[in-house]
Amino acid sequence: MTEKLKILFTNDAPLIVYGIKSGFDRLGHYTKVMTGSNRLWDKPKEQQLILFKEAIEEFKPDLVFSECFANFAEGVFEFTRDKGIFHAFWSIEDTPFDHWIGDYWSDFADYVFTTTAECLPNYWNKGKRAELMLFGCNPQYHKHINTEITNDIVLVANNYQRRSNQTKDFVLPLVEHEYAISIFGNDWWIDSEREVNLCKYPSVYKGYKAYEDLPLLYSSSKVVIGQNLDDNSITQTSMRPYEVLGIGGGLLVSPWTPAQEYLFHDHAYLPKDTDEMIQMVNEALKMSHEYRRQKALRAQNYVYKYHNYDLRAQQVMNAYYKG
After folding, report:
1. pTM for this structure?
2. Which CATH class is domain 6-136+308-322?
3. Which end of the chain has fewer CB atoms within 10 angstroms, the N or the C?
4. Could you tell me if 231 and 159 are in contact, meaning their C-beta atoms sit under 8 angstroms apart?
5. Tell me, which fold does domain 151-306 have in CATH?
């Protein structure tokens, strides 16, 4: 019988709560997330350490799993090292050339997972044990909801400055051509100081959308627009493509990156310029509901098989047993 372990998560992001935690749960392990009054990310470092030590003493985990939270107290890692508790760090925001966030935390963690293959040699050259671990989907959460179609096109994303060219080339043309598009995210979309914004199109911006609302939103839409922070890596994407395809509702149309082509093949529309964006969105909008559902179901089956969080959790367990 496989040993059942206790896993403590130091971050309560949706990626953890609805994502990789579910994989450990289905593998039969015991999990605990530091959340609510015990949440770390919104506390000073001194208080983080106090709360973390209390959680360790109470839960007595075999493994601590930390995901890309930039303001961790270093003592959180030092305490597990002193206690001999395996501490894994998942660096989800590494990009190949300008944002290697895991570099600092890799000095403290026992094992590093990154979503960016190009960063692995950097970790190995530092003498760190590290491997690639991609995002995934949770079939019990990222699933289709049987509902009527009420949206043509939706985008859920924050208006980051480094996405401004993508927004200009792939999103604003849809807005300017008066497609029925609803955009959700933080209020940077209607910030006139941002280089690219929706101030001229206030009806397009629909406000913040909670993560818990995504299955219904994507299930009730024909097209879901994707956005990326990196267009160089062969593996780095946002978590969104896995989730959109897993929900199996609206078809994903996302600006081309080598990673999305490599990971999702023809299960997503990947336009390379504005003209292709318009063409692909039109194709998805015009197809019959039945054909759209067939395409969505094929994509869903693909990510359920190859990119589910049971696989990711097992990957962490394999690293743990390697010691």
Report:
1. 0.94
2. alpha beta
3. N
4. no
5. Rossmann fold (3.40.50)
